[in-house]
Design goal:
This protein is α+β, with helices and mostly antiparallel strands. It has one domain. The chain has 2 helices and 2 strands. The chain has a two-stranded parallel ribbon.
Amino acid sequence: MKEADYERITYGLTLAAAQTLSRLNPGMTFIYVSGEGTDSSERGRVMWGAHQGPEENALLRLPLKAFMFRPGLIEPLDGFNRRRAPIE
């Protein structure tokens, strides 16, 4: 995916939704699932990590309670197919 498209979809869409929700209910809790390797210093070398850091920072500036989760791995439950081979 091109970097501009990635930023528009991840940063733009998430922030627009969070801004709208914070305007409607400033006391709400917003939970954002980011990922291991996200760089909140906004100087990351990996494209997705470099974009998710500013996104997390922007969410934290909104008038709502924001929590960030950075899982290193999400393993599907039995019955769900993986897109990639499992990490062993």
